[in-house]
Amino acid sequence: MKKMIVPVLLFVCLALISLAYAHPPKDIEITYDSNTKILTATIIHDISNPLGHYIKKVDIGLNDADNEIIQQNFSRQENNNFQKVSYYIPDIKAGDIISVEGYCSISGKLEKEITVK
């Protein structure tokens, strides 16, 4: 029984250390060009290993975060600082609220929104 305590404690410590390095996205920069109908979002997420710690999913909502119109999954992050996405969305009009939610592959998420002018 005592032989199991050390490996279990080691595993718990390693799990806690890996969670300490996990963090949600820092910010999301959103623009929508009414002329081209293109939404661009840059999810700021500073990391050291884009293969193991990255933005794993981006959800786009329209007029209600629960009204998801786009969902995209990723297997890695574009670079060590951000993940950028662009979508052609022709149905958006002035006054609409666009929400963008970015999910970290390890832990956490961040949601931001803009109102289209």
Known CATH architecture: Sandwich
Shape: elongated
Largest sheet: 4 strands, antiparallel
Q: What is the CA-atom radius of gyration, in angstroms?
A: 18 Å
Structural class per helix/strand content?
alpha+beta
What is the CATH class name?
Answer: Mainly Beta
Series of H and E elements: HEEEEEEE
Compute the number of strand runs.
7
Biggest sheet strand line-up: 4-3-6-7
DSSP helix count? Answer: 1
Mean pLDDT comes to 88
CATH superfamily: SOR catalytic domain
Q: How far from one another are the termini?
A: 66 Å
Proportion of residues in extended strands = 35-45%
Kindly give the count of domains.
1
Q: If you consult CATH, what is the topology?
A: Immunoglobulin-like
Tell me the helix content. Answer: 10-25%
Uncertain segments: 10-20
Question: Could you please describe the fold and organization of this structure?
Answer:
This protein has 117 residues and is of the alpha+beta class. The protein has one domain: SOR catalytic domain (Immunoglobulin-like, Sandwich). Helices cover 17% and strands 43% of the residues. The chain contains 1 helix and 7 strands, in the order αβββββββ. The strands form 2 sheets. It has a 4-stranded antiparallel β-sheet with strand order 4-3-6-7, with no helix packed on it. A hairpin with a 4-residue loop joins β1 and β2 (38-44). It starts with a helix and ends with a strand.
